[in-house]
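[SOLVED] Need 3D model of a two-part complex

Original post:
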Amino acid sequence: MFFATYLRRELRRRMRQAIFVALGLAVGIGLVVTVSAASAGVKKADASVLSSLYGVGTDVTVTGEAPQPGKAPANGKAPKGATQITGGPNGAEICQNGKCENAAGKTISNLAPEYLPIKSAEVADVARLHDVQAAAGGLLLTDNTITFPKNFGSSGGSAPPSPNTVSLEGVDTGNSKLGPLSNASLTSGHSFTAADSGSDVAVVDSGYATSNSLKVGSTITIDSVKFTVIGIVRQPQASSPPDAYIPLKVAQSLKTGPLGVETGDVNTIYVTATSAAAIPTVQHEIARLLPHATVTTAASLANEVTGSLANAAKLVNDLGKWLAVVVLIAAFAVASLLTMSAVARRVGEFGTLKAIGWRTRRIVVQVLGESVAMGVVGAAVGVGLGFAGASIIAKVAPKLPALIPGTGGGGGTFQSQSVNGGPVSRTIGGTPDRTIHVPLHPSITVNVIVLAVLLAVAGGLLAGSFGSWRIAKLRPADALSRVA
Amino acid sequence: MYKLTGVTKLYQKGRRTVPAVRGLDLVIEDGEWLAVQGRTGHGKSTLLNLLGGLDRPTEGTIELDGTDLGALRETQLTRLRAEKIGFIFQTFNLVPTLSAAENVEAALIPLRIGHADRQARVAAALDSVGLADRAGHLPSEMSGGQQQRTAIARALVKEPKVLLADEPTGNLDEDTRDEIIGLLEHLWRERGLTLVLVTHDTSLARQAQRVGVMSKGRLTIKLDNRPAPRPESHTVTAGHDTVP
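Solution:
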């Protein structure tokens, strides 16, 4: 009681100095809270990008080797099963396995995997690895359809048409918690069940559904097979989802050209590790097991995300952190100097208290109490400033662009030659680099608030401890002689 | 009872060693009023600091009721000051942010007395110095005399055995000075205190039983009005005069 009264009166007496110290600490704390909030916001944005790229529950993604599409064979002949378009005096011709026909007015479809296949036994090998909790295969395919105009290939005829590309993924219907659909939200219909494994049903992406006016019950044709749409899903913004998902077994049974897959093959494996700490080990083990496959983790993917989001993360982590540290150090230094100065002015008072029997410890506690009280006020104001700073950032910060590298796949196997006979290489399929815009939502956690209060109290304690050190050294006779 | 034997206090001023008190032998009886006079810088306040345990002698011993103050640890000395010794200062030395009652209460804080008991003792102490109606006033709201009365209440509230006063009337006008002298004499008689008082004020010194003069660190007793010792008394009189 006496302690509190004395403390309150003393702080009231040097109100201006107390406010100055508290405000100094508040600015430092406010900056720490704001930077932490911005950092959390950037991390959250980063995580949302990664999780959308990656899928919930997936720690490691394994993709087969990327094919080398569009490369004309050395002998000028197309590989077996490839569709070749040639130009000649009779117009454009479509050739496949040595059989050619006039291309004019024809529609051809070509289904190809985006990555070279991974055998089902290899999926099982991955699943058996010590630190792997679960593994599910997926088959990424691209269906390219080209309809040639009737006058295509003739002199003065139409230019080569662009293919209509539909990306597909065959998903393991028995493992809905792992794989591309684990992160999707269903907007209509229903997702796959284990019973759908052999059915010609599809779940389509909402973007694809909108642009093609699809709804539940509609049908889509892939490689001449009609699939009934049973559900429409929305994937997170940052992801580059396939247009449609079909059961893995059905996807494996489709005719996939020269890079075709065999029964049981996949070209993507989604892996969950037993713990976050085990991810690097899992990555290493899979890379050893499948030396030609590409093994990515969220961390390695994060390194590939560039643009303002990455820059913001760097800015917040480097500049923001150090700015907060510098301001805090300055605030602590000012608080310490002012406390020392206050103690110097109160030497006579402390000497008197020692003379009437106050122990040094009691006086030190009193001074520390005053400093800590200033620190607590600084913390409260600082947290308020931090909230204000975070809300200002949320209001004024533009959406952060993040450049996400493409998949590098390129499963299309169209090979074409120009009408004039010169070879033309064309990459079809794979996903290009793309930029997404992620909103920044700074968030202040309880941990940050606790950290802020602890920092402010530490600042107060630090300032008080300098004063206390001086009090401890104070000899009462000397102190009293300065009053007289 | 204080017993000082061969007490010397030296201070270091740069390269010079300055003796503030030199080879002092002195006995101060319980309940005695000793006034110490002397010119500024001749060791009066140093003597008071030594008696109050605020400073330690360079040589010699100071015993209070048989306890050698020089041999006590700092915490023990602090405890001794808290329990047995009251101080009154020329500049009052009140804590400016605390009211009269809180300043008086501050002297009871080290004794760990319960809140209610503390309040009762504070009220009684303020009443004894005629400041019952000024309990809530800050030092800045009181006159010099009232501040010194508050300081006296602070010194007496813990019911000390010894009261050490350093120029208690030095900062007061004549009327107030007489009031304070009257109050000190009344309290000394009423409570049987041992009162050691450093003063330039001759009228105040005349109230004392013994008057000594400090000169260049040596104490010479100039006046001794103490009653004659009773036959059973074992008073040690060493140091009645300064020892060369």
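Edit: The mean pLDDT of chain B is 87.
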